[in-house]
Amino acid sequence: MKVPSIGQSARASSPLPGFLVFFLTCHVGSRESAQFTVVGPDQPVTAVVGDDVVLPCHLSPRMSAENMEVRWFQRESIPFVHLYRYGKDKFGQQMSKYRGRTELSKAGITDGNVALRIVNVRPSDEGQYHCFVQDGASYEETVLELKVAASGSAPQISVEDYQDGGIRVVCRSAGWYPEPEVVWRDLNGQAFPSASQTNSQEANGLYGTQTSAIVMENSNRNLSCLVRNTRLSQEKESTLFYISDPLFPKVNPWKVSLDMMILVVLFGFIALSVYLFKIKGKQAAELDWRRSVFPVEEANVTLDPDTAHPQLVLSEDGKRVRWEQKRQPLPDTPERFDTCFCVLGREGYTSGKHCWEVGVGDGRYWAVGVATESVSRKGGMSLSPQGRIWAVRWWGDEFQALTDPATSLPLSPPSRIRVCLDCDWGQVTFMDAVSNAPIFTFPPGSFSGERIQPWIWVGSGSQLSLCP
Q1: Which tens digit of pLDDT belongs to each residue from 418-459?
Q2: Which of 208, 285, 344, 465 could bond 307 through an S-S bridge, CB–CB 3.0 to 4.6 Å?
Q3: In angstroms, rounded to a whole number, what is the distance separating the alpha carbons of residues 206 and 132?
Q4: Contacts of 354 (CB under 8 A, 6+ apart)
């Protein structure tokens, strides 16, 4: 039995929730012997992405839990996955990614069944879950593990090009979780060596895989590509049929030399042409590109002090914001962020295309982007499109796009970031405001007609400004 953990969301600057204070001060030292134990499965529960899953949990001996507190949580008790207290479900401090997706079993609650159903399982749901039950001063808990899996698409094999004296073939498949195993085999079922393999995780958390092999003229030319999910014991396979002799490269030294000379001359001509074209038309091309991609209204954004976290200090003109260690004595209104160091822009947009620039300076902890007007402002938040936020951030020494999970960006953040919002297309794009180079574009989605506002997160030692 463990005392439920108190996570970072219970900040030193905020009072502990009442029930925890009462529990810690009054009952830890004088706990009554529990009249029950909480029982969960000994083995991990496996769920398929997109399906529903039930996490088993019950009291032993069987007794009614109808008037008890049942708290499901992961690493921290607040925010929680699901909370049932004395006959009612409580959703006030529920983790945003579980909203509308959890249900405590009521049919068997009088017999001690407190199983939790999670609908539309996602890869991010994977991990440990605590089933904590309290009756007065008595409490018990159990920990169980949820594993998530997905079986992806049938692999597709294509003949790509010549490499190392043979023919390079590539096998591609998508929609797997966790990362799949990929094996090339000949028709005898023997493993065939692969030349390379790359797995990539998409924004939805699923994995795609690309694997290549080199088929030589004197090797077995009938290959199959098998992609396997070991967690589900499922596999999908596709076969490459016989590659005929005329497709294999024939080496002629004189022809190779002549081809190389032609390629060198052609490459040099093309490179020179491209260089001259870039020098002549770089500025005009960049301007035309920006106007064609974003025929936008240049937004004059100011920050809304009524939404700012109490540890954020805004300038009088609403153009600059910095983080301070001391919490300001500000009213805790519904509009104000109370946990995440965020602030929204006064302006909001429901249609059209709008751009603005944010100077990020040399701070190490910040994020810029947009959020819907309905974004959660109290308790825990999901900094991702699932939490109604589209943004990029600099986190210590890593530049990321706030997808779910976060996507690492292979560059350093610029000094100014241009945020471009297309409400009609449901798309958010980030660019280097100095060089106009693209940084990241979130896939087109739907804002469902919601009002979209500029959003800024400021961490320790950072100061951001809205550029005129």
Answers
A1: 999 998 888 899 999 988 888 898 887 767 678 999 999 998
A2: 344
A3: 31
A4: 296, 297, 298, 299, 420, 421, 423
50 Cβ neighbours under 8 A, 6+ residues apart: 120, 121, 150
CA distances from 125 to 287, 346, 402, 406, 443 (A): 44, 34, 17, 15, 22
Helix segments in 205-339, DSSP class H: 253-293
- pLDDT band, residue 397 (cuts 50/70/90): confident
What is the distance between the alpha carbons of residues 46 and 204, in angstroms, rounded to a whole number? 19
Q: What does the alpha-carbon distance between residue 22 and residue 136 come to, in Å, rounded to a whole number?
A: 11
The confidence band for 293, taking pLDDT boundaries of 50, 70 and 90, is: very low
* pLDDT, position 358: 96
d(Cα 362, Cα 415) in Å, to the nearest integer? Answer: 8
Distance from chain centroid for Cα 268: 43
Which residues are CB-neighbours of 8 under 8 A, at least 6 positions away?
A: 76
Alpha-carbon distances, residue 229 vs 21, 93, 128, 170 (angstroms): 46, 36, 21, 19
Report how far residue 37's alpha carbon sits from residue 32's, in angstroms, rounded to the nearest whole number.
13
**Can you read off the two tokens belonging to residue 94?**
């529920």
- Residues with Cβ < 8 Å from 209, sequence gap 6 or more? 171, 172, 173, 174, 176, 179, 180, 182, 197, 198, 199, 200, 227
pLDDT digits (tens, 9 = 90+) for 57-80: 999 999 999 999 999 999 888 899
Give me the chain's average pLDDT, please: 82
Residue the block writes with tokens 């209104």: 333
Per the listing, tokens 């830890």 go with 28
Lowest mean pLDDT among 118-122, 181-185, 215-219, 412-416: 215-219
Out of 23-27, 365-369, 401-405, least confident range: 23-27
As a whole number of angstroms, the distance between CA 114 and CA 133 comes to 9
